[in-house]
Specification:
The protein is α+β, with helices and mostly antiparallel strands. The protein has 3 helices and 4 strands; from the N terminus they run E-H-E-E-H-H-E. The relative contact order is 0.34.
Length: 105
């Protein structure tokens, strides 16, 4: 089992927190669930973090059966839809995100 995660760092603009997480549930989650070969999608809203991760405001994890499945997902048109979904909420926060691929031990 392999997991690709997206870690969003920065801050959600003041007063936009509820709208942001509603958009995550209604726009981003469905797009991520439609990723080719995705087996499960998990989302986390950090409540507390030690430095230097104190600016993490969203963590997403998508499970895939293999590294080849991740590569196929990233090359598919469904990834474009997911990227468009993320772009649709970028005005609600200041920051960036990065990806990590994990192998479950």
């Amino acid at each position: 089992m392999f997991t690709r995660s997206a870690i969003f760092c920065g801050r959600i603009h003041a007063g936009m927190e509820d709208a942001f997480f509603e958009a995550v549930r209604t726009r981003l989650l469905p797009a991520w669930q439609q990723m080719l070969h995705a087996q499960e999608v998990r989302l986390y809203r950090p409540l507390e973090a030690e430095a230097p991760a104190a600016d993490v405001f969203l963590v997403q994890e998508i499970d895939y059966p293999s590294r080849a499945a991740i590569a196929a997902a990233l090359a598919s048109d469904r990834r474009l839809a997911a990227m468009e979904a993320v772009a649709s909420v970028q005005h609600m926060y200041q920051g960036s995100h990065h990806h990590i691929i994990y192998e479950r031990l």
